[in-house]
Amino acid sequence: MSLVEWLIWFAALFFLLGVVFPLVAWSLSYYSGWRRLAERYPLTGAFPEQAHRFQSLTLNGVRYRRVLRMAERPEGLYLVPMGVFSFNHPSLFFPWHELQIEEQPTWWGWYSGRFRSMPQEAFHIPASVKARWTPYLRRAVSTSLEPEVS
C-alpha cells in the first residue's frame, strides 16, 4: 500500500470513529430515553466496583444487548453502558421504589417495566435480571406499605 492509500484509510477510520460513532451514540441515547432518564435519575456518587457485566435491557425499543453493567444494592439499581458504548450515556441510579415490573413475561420471555415517575419510558429485561431484582423490588414495595410511626 502506498502512503496515499494509508492516509485515505486513516481518514476514513477517523471519520467513522470521530463523527459517525458519536452521532450514532447520541441518537441511541436520545431515542432510547437514556438522556431523559439521566436528567431524572443521575448517578451522583461512584458506581459500585462489584457489578454484573455484559447485561441486556431494551429501553423504548432500543436494545442494549450485552453492553451494560448493572449493580443491585439495597438502596437501588446502578446502570451504565460499558466501554465505548458509554459515550453520551451517563451513569444512572434508580431507587427500587421507582421501578415497576409486570409479573407475567411477554411472549418472547422478557419482562416489561416502567419507571413510576416517568411512565412514558418503557423497558424490558430478561428473566435472569428480573430474578436478581425481585428481592429488592419486594422489599421496596413492602417498605412503602408499612405505616410511618411518629
Characterise this structure.
The protein is an alpha+beta fold and 150 residues long. It has a single domain (31-145), classed as PH-domain like, CATH 2.30.29. Helix content is 37%, strand content 30%. A seven-stranded antiparallel β-sheet has the order 4-3-2-1-7-6-5. Strand 1 (52-59) and strand 2 form a beta hairpin. The longest helix has 30 residues, at 3-32. The termini are far apart.
Concise structural overview:
By secondary structure, the protein is α+β, with helices and mostly antiparallel strands.
Secondary structure blueprint with pairings:
Blueprint: H1 3-32, H2 34-40, E1 52-59, E2 62-73, E3 76-81, E4 92-94, E5 99-101, E6 111-115, E7 118-125, H3 127-145
Antiparallel strand pairs: 1-2, 1-7, 2-3, 3-4, 5-6, 6-7
How would you describe the shape? elongated
Low-confidence stretches: 145-149
What is the percentage of strand-forming residues? 25-35%
Oligomeric state of shown chains: single chain
CATH topology tier name: PH-domain like
Helix percentage range: 25-40%
Give the class-level CATH name: Mainly Beta
Mean pLDDT: 86
Gyration radius, rounded: 19 Å
Please report the number of helical segments.
3
